[in-house]
Write a structure and sequence with these properties.
Radius of gyration: 17 Å
Low-confidence stretches: none
CATH class of the largest domain: Alpha Beta
Helix content: 10-25%
CATH architecture of the largest domain: Alpha-Beta Complex
Number of strands: 12
Strand order of the largest sheet: 3-6-7-8-9-10
Shape: globular
Mean pLDDT: 93
Strand content: 15-25%
Number of helices: 5
């Protein structure tokens, strides 16, 4: 295997992290040296921040009001379907999951079915080792295409079956069955859970107008 070239500039670091804006890259601990403990110190500590661990660097997750509202709408509809049927566990946007090769990602929503829960309970680990069958990413202004592509690669390599990428500025959802295989649904269509969450459906018109109180 050919070793990756050393990082010589901050621009090299940004490129390695998917081109994320500089203000989301934490410099303490020094990029490349951060650990899961450092991540948990931010998630649980006084200086609470939602951060992901990417190649030994802490990268902050950001979400605007509109994106938070849409993520909350999806959570509410999914919760109402999943929990009465006791299908599994649904995590909001602060549940960390361990990826392959040491990264820790925090999807905006994650669903872990009972079939992936040993003993039908979540282990006590602060970073979840169980593999979601379905994850959701709601695109924010500071997300880049490369960053989302990197996340999708990691999710499906882990064993995720389905990923919804919500592009609220364009009123569409990309439904991924692999990092590169997807269909695009518009606000006139219905989102379904497929084999990852059989029987689930949600109106995208309701989703994209979740801030409309008329």
């Amino acid at each position: 295997m050919i070793a990756a070239p050393p990082l010589r500039t901050f621009a090299d670091l940004q490129a390695k992290l998917g081109g994320v804006p500089a203000h989301r890259i934490l410099l303490h601990p020094t990029p490349g040296t951060a650990t899961e403990t450092d991540l948990l110190n931010h998630l649980d500590g006084d200086d609470k921040r939602l951060v992901e661990l990417v190649d030994g660097t802490l990268v902050e997750k950001t979400m605007g009001a509109k994106e938070a509202l849409m993520a909350g709408h999806i959570y509410g509809v999914m919760f109402a379907f999943i929990y009465p049927r006791k299908l599994g566990l649904l995590f909001p946007a602060d549940g960390p999951f361990r990826m392959n090769f040491g990264n820790v990602r925090i999807p905006d929503l994650s669903y872990v079915p009972k079939s992936r829960l040993p003993g039908l309970k979540l282990p006590a680990d602060k970073i979840c080792r169980q593999v979601p069958s379905l994850v959701v990413e709601v695109i924010s202004d500071s997300n880049t295409k490369k960053e989302i592509a990197m996340k999708l690669e990691e999710y499906f390599a882990l064993g995720v079956e389905l990923a919804w990428v919500v592009e609220q500025q364009k009123d569409w959802v990309r439904v991924h069955t692999s990092p590169k295989d997807f269909t695009t649904l518009t606000s006139d269509e219905t989102l379904s859970g497929g084999s990852a969450l059989p029987g689930f459906e949600m109106s995208l018109r309701d989703l994209f107008h979740s801030d409309d109180l008329n």
